[in-house]
Design goal:
single chain; alpha+beta; Aldehyde Oxidoreductase, domain 3; Aldehyde Oxidoreductase, domain 4; 3 domains; seven-stranded mixed β-sheet; five-stranded mixed β-sheet; 17 helices; 25 strands; binds dioxothiomolybdenum(VI) ion
């Protein structure tokens, strides 16, 4: 059973979403709710000299202004857990930082009150850019295997290039928001987050509350992409406002403030040297990466988390560094490290293939990886070559002519076909599930996990229908809610691989309980009828699951709101997901405008549990990558600090007119070791390598290598 493909099933929550019936956090309307608005700092660094609430309090409807005085000092550092974000402080670390919160009976009064507050500041000199004087380079742990410097010195052919990936901001449709309620000594937080458990732990720590007195509810999230993975700064601020006013308080952060306060994908620089031996195979890679970092930020520069394992190159020498300057904390944005690192690596490998006069697909196929060079452990599965072969077939790659500029339309339009691979760590986390089946036809599962559009509810439904034959129309799935199950961060593409085994276990435990019933063998008519026949109103089971190599302490971590993540290195193997992208670009002869009429993407995510939502994930990842490759970059304002293009008019994301056909396929072969079903992750690998394929296609069309994102018209004229 575990090795059979899953059938197509529509997204179980799609209908409610298109009807507008789904309640996102900011849709929660509690009686007596007050509305809040933050006051953003107008300097890039320094401290507040004076801040008067009087002008805001004079606005009709304004009830309270919270300042730094309303918050306890930052909690003492705790070993092994990152510090929660600061609340409102008088020290200013970045432009746009909240310096006050105005709470009012209406949103309009809150906005007017916030605009009336004019603090005075003492400004300090600040460092805006990675190459500004005062930026502090801080090297971190290198990643090494074999002896790349020696092998490169003896290489037959080398490519040595520099690449740049810009700062970018996530722009999910759902804004950051927090609605907090303080009732009978209990704090209830409604918020779009990927991290209900960690938010609970952080808010309790910040506000000196017992974690048992805090609940966080994030039933639906309207897009996340990592922006909602970190604990958000406004959460404890709004919670404190609810505690001080005794009324529910809601803040929906304007998009302009999100650009300055949310985490972002930092600018990163990549120096890649790839060497081939006389046999024409890649012999060694040297790769130095650094990225833009805040003064205290902890987002690591892990640019070697998938590049060494993609092509089985034994000699790899990778260094990384933070470049500390004055900005808000950078953080995780879909495929945080592999997206930029595979843009660099796949561009360099394409250059090497051209230097060796090898077809770029055939060249990649010649480097099948079986071993993780960093750990020496076998890869539990790697079907990247299946992805490349199937992608080439669907794309029609055999009709490609190798020379740049050799494929054109009669009107002079240049056609470019590019390929690139992607890999992403296959991670897992501990998870806990409670499953209850009723004789009345109802089923309820409460489990560790968050739904932000990736399709986790559909995945759960697939399993419960397959294993128990429950009625999907009467299936309630409670996730993202600390009051129903411990909640781990859902990120790093570990959602499906972590949930699938615990749901399977719950179903198996339920089958065992059903078999004990007097009517245990009268299974005809399904589980609900079986319960009715046995005169049992319901049955309930609770199960937990940990990843390979994890023990019970992972469950303790999960319950405490900490990290219970493992992977891609497991005790005796390493596991990655893979993808191959084939991209066609068309470059207009006069304007040099780049269009992408079609993409073929074939993924190896192990067993596909939900074909419909999996394909949608890949289309989303490719769409996001096309934005990254051709449009998106957030520009620092070096004069005043902060970001210049902090709205959707100037920060240009892909729209429908930019996206052509995206043909998605899957290898759909189970990983033999990661879990019983063999599911690996998909959400992030879907965008890894796409930008490299675009750059390679642009080279094929024009003969021009653009080694930075985004690739724009001005790079081609
Ligand atoms: Mo993902 S960027 O780890 O939510």
């Amino acid at each position: 059973m575990p090795t059979s493909p899953f059938p197509e099933r529509e997204r179980v929550d799609a209908r409610d979403k298109v009807l507008g019936a789904t309640k996102y956090a900011a849709d929660i309307a509690l009686p007596g709710t007050l509305f809040a608005m933050t006051v953003p700092a107008t300097i890039a660094k320094g401290r507040i000299a004076s801040l008067s609430a009087a002008a805001a309090m004079a606005v009709p409807g304004v009830i309270r202004v919270l300042t730094a005085d309303d918050f306890p000092p930052a909690p003492a550092p705790e070993k092994g857990s990152p510090p929660p974000p600061p609340t409102i402080t008088t020290e200013i670390a970045y432009r746009g930082q909240p310096v006050a919160l105005v709470v009012a009976g209406t949103l309009e009064a809150a906005i007017e009150g916030a605009e009336a507050i004019r603090p005075t500041y003492v400004g300090d000199a600040f460092v805006p850019l990675v190459d500004s004087p005062g930026a502090v380079r801080e090297p971190s742990e290198p990643v090494r295997a074999g002896d790349a410097p020696r092998v490169l010195a003896g290489s037959h052919t080398t490519v040595d290039r520099h690449y740049v990936s810009p700062a970018q901001h996530h722009n999910p449709i759902e804004m950051l928001s927090t609605t907090a309620e303080w009732r009978d000594g209990q704090l209830i937080i409604y918020e779009g987050t990927q991290s209900a458990g960690p938010v609970r732990a952080a808010v309790a720590r910040t506000l000196r509350l017992d974690p048992a007195a805090v609940e966080v509810k994030s039933a639906y999230v309207g897009g996340a992409f990592g922006q909602k993975g970190a604990v958000q700064r406004q959460t404890a601020i709004v919670a404190r406002a609810a505690m001080l006013t005794g009324r529910p308080v809601k803040l929906v952060m304007p998009r302009g403030q999100i650009f300055h306060n949310a985490t972002f994908r930092p600018l990163s620089r990549h120096h890649v040297t790839v060497g081939a031996g006389a046999d024409g195979r890649i012999a060694a890679i040297r790769y130095d990466a650094d990225h833009q970092q805040s003064r205290k930020g902890q987002f690591p520069p892990s640019y070697h988390e998938s590049a060494p394992q993609t092509y089985g190159v034994a000699d790899y020498d990778g260094t990384t560094a933070n470049v500390r300057l004055d900005t808000q904390d950078p953080g995780y944005m879909r495929a945080p490290h592999p997206h930029p690192s595979h843009f660099a690596l796949e561009s360099a490998i394409d250059e090497l293939a051209y230097r060796l006069d090898r077809d770029p697909v055939a060249f990649r196929l010649a480097h099948h990886a079986t071993v993780d060079p960093i750990t020496g452990h076998p890869l539990s599965s790697c079907f990247l070559n299946d992805c490349l072969t199937e992608g080439a077939r669907r794309f029609g790659w055999d009709r490609r002519t190798m020379a740049p500029g050799s494929m054109t339309l009669t009107d002079g339009t240049l056609i470019g076909w590019g390929v690139a691979s992607g890999a992403y760590p296959a991670n897992m986390t501990a998870a806990i599930a409670t499953l209850r089946i009723g004789a009345d036809g109802s089923t309820r599962i409460a489990v560790t996990g968050h739904e932000f559009g990736q399709g986790i509810r559909t995945v759960i439904t697939q399993l419960l229908v397959r294993d128990l034959g429950v009625d999907p129309a009467r299936l309630e799935i409670a996730i993202g809610d600390t009051s129903v199950a411990p909640q781990h961060t859902t990120a790093g593409s570990w959602g499906t691989a972590s949930l699938v085994p615990v749901v399977e276990k719950a179903a198996a435990a339920m089958r065992a309980r059903l078999a004990e019933l007097p009517a245990g063998h009268a299974a005809a008519g399904g589980v609900h009828r079986q319960l009715a026949a046995a005169r049992r109103p319901f049955l309930q089971v609770e199960v937990s699951n940990v990843g390979p190599g994890q023990d019970e302490t992972a469950l303790d971590q999960l319950r405490a709101g900490g990290s219970a993540k493992i992977g891609p290195e497991y005790p005796s193997f390493s596991t990655f997901s893979y993808i191959a992208h084939f991209v066609e670009v068309r470059v207009e002869p006069r304007t040099r405008r780049i269009r992408v009429p079609r993409v073929v993407s074939i993924a190896d995510c192990g067993r596909v549990v939900s074909p419909r939502t999996a394909a949608s994930q890949v289309r989303g990842g490719v769409t996001m990558a096309l934005g990254a490759a051709l449009r998106e970059a957030t520009e620092v304002d070096p004069r005043y600090g902060g970001w210049l293009n902090d709205d959707l008019a100037d920060y240009v994301v892909s729209v429908n007119a930019d996206i052509g056909d995206i043909d998605v396929g899957f290898v759909d072969r189970p990983d033999p070791l990661l879990n019983a079903i063999g599911a690996k992750g998909l959400g992030e690998v879907s965008m890894v390598g796409t930008a490299g394929a675009v750059a390679n296609a642009v080279f094929h069309a024009t003969g021009r290598r653009v080694r930075k994102m985004p690739i724009r018209i001005d790079d081609l004229i």
